[in-house]
Amino acid sequence: xxxxxxxxxxLRHLFKKPATVDYPFKKLEVPPGFRGSPYLRPELCIAxxxxxxxCPAEAIEITLTNEAEKKFxxxxxNDRCIHCAQCVDSCPTEAMQMDNLFxxxxxxxxxxxxxxxxVRAVVKPKAEPKS
Amino acid sequence: MSxxxxxxxxxxxxxxPIGVRVTVDGEIIRDADLHLGYNxxxxxxxxxxxxxxxxxxxxxxxxxxxxxxxxxxxxxxxEKLMEIEPPKRGLFIRILVxxxxxxxxxxxxxxxxxxxxxxxxxxxxxxxxxxIVMDILETISGNRVHYAINTIGGVRRDLDxxxxxxxxxxxxxxxxxxxxxxxxxxxxxxxxxRLAGVGYLSKEDAIELCAVGPTLRASGVPMDxxxxxxxxxxxxxxxxxxxxxxxxxxxxxxxxxxxxxxSYNIIEYLLKNLPDGPxxxxxxxxxxxxxxxxxxxxxRGENIHYIKSNGTDxxxxxxxxxxxxxxxxxxxxxxxxGFIADVPLIFAAIDPCIxxxxxxxxxxxxxxxxxxxxxxxxxxxxxxKITNYQARKREAEWPL
Lengths: 131, 400
Hints:
The complex is a heterodimer of chains A (131) and B (400). Chain A is an alpha+beta fold.
């Protein structure tokens, strides 16, 4: 045992750059594959409701607005979303995607809602939906 | 003369809400009593209303530090229920993430131990280095805390060559830093003096009180689920169970630093022997009526999930026994005959995760020495009494 074993380490760090970044002015890049918020590509959605069924936070809502024209309305409640990307995994046609934004806070949770009105796409599913 | 000091549920010395009542004689703790249930969230009941897939993410959110532990424990159980076998590559990636999680959890704990012992610069350096492993986890899973890498039947994301190289490179830095901290921990006299002899738990007591994880191993009992009842691919991964025989907080620190080294070896082995092939198999939506107990060695100790299915796509019952709950009985033993000032340190040494452990709730009324369970009707009576009392108070005259 000796006194002051930590001092050389402390002195060395006096001449190093800080470990933190100046956040609001300088931003770190997120890695590829980062799970941001989900969004819909309406031209691909076949309205199979696999995402709605598997969403753990019940953040996805799909409603049939016009039965004759096969019109659907999809709401993603981003205030409830837990960013697990299960909807992306469940989607059989790659209509659900994740962006890579991370500054997604808002003053009002109702403003975080995202909506799409679309006609159901006629796309053949590439693969069976993952459970 | 002795009197009781209530510590918590909200207290600056505690990182998470837990109630402790300690009976003290001067500065020395004679008895301690824990009050649980403050952080109850009803996760088990919620799990009965969600399907197997949704529950992975719910289980992950039991705890932020050992999120992968709970998810893996659950997924393993469900895979047994559904009678599916995940592919080898999937299992390798799963336990790779679990070892990375152990590294980040132990580094976090090491920092907290430094902080509780009054060695704050140690805390800051350790937590800076912990960022390296957090970044690795973010690269391979897409999130820093809730990795969501598990799915029923395997894992969700594959690992490419570039990522494997990145992990191996970062691991070299981490290994060097951990070796430095090990050297520091054993040579810095004030740090050692603060930790040695605090929170003594003998080997016999540790076994008798069913302690788990590093708390048990620091009392000289080589017990580890990864070795005793190997799950996933742990039976083919070479590693050692780390123990210490000082039976105090210093021993728990040493065990965790040794385990860090073992984890680095395991990660290196996994990356160098990663088999090719698919990462997941397709899982059915329903499970046959059955029940299963799944065990997993979380960074804090043995984690147990009991899952019962009834043929639908939802579990009938899901019971979680988190490692912290198993360590509570031993904590009381450790607190006895210690000093009040040691309470935060002893609590920190079991690495408590209150939000993991709070599964049950009981309404308990505390009087001077007695406790009883309060029924709804007696609560109503109590309420009436208070209202009456306030009515009398309203009639009281203003004292001025």
